[in-house]
Amino acid sequence: MLSLSRSIVGTNCRLESALVPTARTSPRSKQSSYIVSNPSCLFCKVVSGELAARKVFEDDNCIAFLDHRPVFPGHSLLIPKQHYETLADLPHNLIEPFFANAQMLARAIESALEAHGSFVAMNNRVSQSVPHFHVHIVPRRRKDGLRGFFWPRYPYKSDEDAETVQQAIRKAVIKLQNPER
Q1: How far apart are CA 85 and CA 151, in angstroms?
Q2: Could you tell me the residue ranges of all domains in the chain?
């Protein structure tokens, strides 16, 4: 089991600072030619590779990455690559593949972190810190202290802790996508 303790330091971090490229989280080169749907949107910049994030999953329509201020280690965000502000804006043809990915990621995160379950949620405008549709997938454990909709945030203590969680989730995604492995 991954054993990562929570850190209360720096809970007022802003998203911009968490997405600045570093040696461990360099921008994606594979899709650097991707056209940003909304040039002022931070998540569109993640999709284009302009801003880096700790990616745990990607397909033709979606990308998922670790939240920079997780409720618990492994807390990930799944976003469509194209810019849609809310669930109501997501085109009908993307609903099934998007939520199939959310379901798969919930399984992968639970498996990778040996969680007892997961919390899957989204906000539409109210409490939506980035106006780009996204789903939170948060690993849960019995008696983990999370109650209601109060979400204390705890950044990773180190890049190594975040890297460990990122790699564990990626391995679980691959295992779910290729069960014969």
Answers
A1: 22
A2: 55-143+151-177
**Quick check: 111 and 172 in contact, CB under 8 A?**
yes
Task: Give the integer Cα–Cα distance in Å for 178 and 78.
Answer: 20
Is the pLDDT at 33 greater than 50? The verdict is: no
Mean per-residue pLDDT for 105-131?
Answer: 93
pLDDT surpasses 80 at 32:
no
Give the model confidence (pLDDT) of 44-58 as tens digits: 999 999 999 999 999
Closest CA to 24 of 58, 54, 57: 54
Supply the pTM of this predicted model: 0.74
- Angle 179-141-129 from CA coordinates, rounded to 5°: 90
C-alpha–C-alpha distance, residues 56 and 166, integer Å? 6
Spatial CA neighbour of 109 closest among 178, 167, 179, 45? 167
With a cut of 90, say whether residue 179 has pLDDT above it.
no
Q: What are phi and psi of 110, to 5 degrees?
A: -60, -45
CB atoms within 10 A of CB 11: 11
Q: Helix 92-112 and helix 159-177: axis angle, to 10°?
A: 120
Class for domain 55-143+151-177, per CATH?
alpha beta
